[in-house]
User: What shape does this take?
Amino acid sequence: MPEDICTERPLYGGSISSTFPVRFQDVSNIRQVPDHQEAFVDPSRDESLIFELLDLKPDVNDNGSAVWFLQDLANEQDAQGFTLVEQSGVVEVPIGNVSVVVTTAIGQMGISKARQGREAQNVVQVYLANLRLKNVGTDVLVVGYEPILISPLSESAATVGAGLPAPAAQSGFLPMAEGKVAMITGGDSIIGKFVCYHFALEGATVAFTYVESIED
Assistant: This one.
């Protein structure tokens, strides 16, 4: 039975790092990815993991910001049948003199591949974490996509198979499962002139590290 092996990978030229299963392949090796994104995919399960750095949206309230971004993703992808499954409250994570606001949301929606129409939409569960780094004017999104129903007309059916995908745990893989954000490694750590913010997306075992340079 296959087992997930996780490794730390540098993102955005090393200013951010993340630890997740090696089965997720770097999409930039296949096609061009926008500079503000890092994208990874497991073709055998049609699962993907996206990291996105955005300018802070000051008009979006902290309470429910993850839901706002989840609905925005649904609109961008022309998704059908959007359903909000779960959302968290606001968690403020104090790190030194900085407070990072964290919210999460889980939703289901119908999404088709870029080259296919709505008749080929798959039903996908989307796990989204929004980390609001207000001191540097940045909204960080960590988004996991997990198909729960593959259309026989989707190009994904050729590799994953149509219908209900086999549960990740049944195949020996780590499921995205809860899709919640938790702080790990005991909080902040000082490394030279850097402060590291450590987070994890439970279930998918995603560790996210934001590194901010400290001025003298």
